[in-house]
Amino acid sequence: MLFALLLDRDLREMATFRGGAGPMPLPAGVSQGQRLEAVMVASEQYRPSPLVTVFDFGYEEIERQVKARGKVTNRASVERTLQLGISEELAKLERNMIWLATTATVSPFIGLLGTVMGSSASFRS
């Protein structure tokens, strides 16, 4: 989600940045695409993270638009792509949730069984 927020902020900056009057000017010689590429390279070390996959979805869509038209022209498409990435990652994370739910449901009963067995063992002695 953090990458989606950062990407949204960067897209807003790209849309409002005109000739030095913008929310946050880039350093000389650094383009917006280079910043995204730097994030892409840095994210490789966190590859198992679901956020990296979501960022990859958004980055690929932005890269596709920039190659086709020279700039990001369809923010809604980028947002839909990010939502698709989020949905896929949530599905992966929720896949084994049934085991966690079962364990959480059964745990109090296992504790109660131990208490009852301990109490009955103390009365037998």
Structure description:
The protein has helices at 2-16, 32-43, 50-69, 75-94, 97-124. It has 2 domains: 2-94, no CATH class; 97-125. α1 (2-16) runs parallel beside α3 (50-69) and α3 runs antiparallel to α4. The model is unreliable at 17-27 (pLDDT under 50). The chain has 125 residues and is mainly alpha-helical. The chain is rod-shaped, with a radius of gyration of 25 Å.
Give a quick rundown of the structure.
With 125 residues, the chain is an all-alpha fold.
Structural key phrases:
2 domains, rod-shaped, 125 residues
Number of helical regions:
5
- For the record, give the distance between the C-alpha atoms at the N and C termini, rounded to a whole number: 58 Å
Q: Strand-and-helix sequence, N→C?
A: HHHHH
- In total, the number of domains comes to 2
Q: Judging from the principal axes of the Cα atoms, what is the shape?
A: rod-shaped
If you average the pLDDT, what whole number results? 78
What percent strand?
Answer: under 5%
* Uncertain runs: 17-27
Main β-sheet description:
none
- Name the structural class: mainly alpha
- State the helicity in percent bands: over 70%
Radius of gyration, in angstroms, nearest whole number: 25 Å
| Count of β-strands | 0
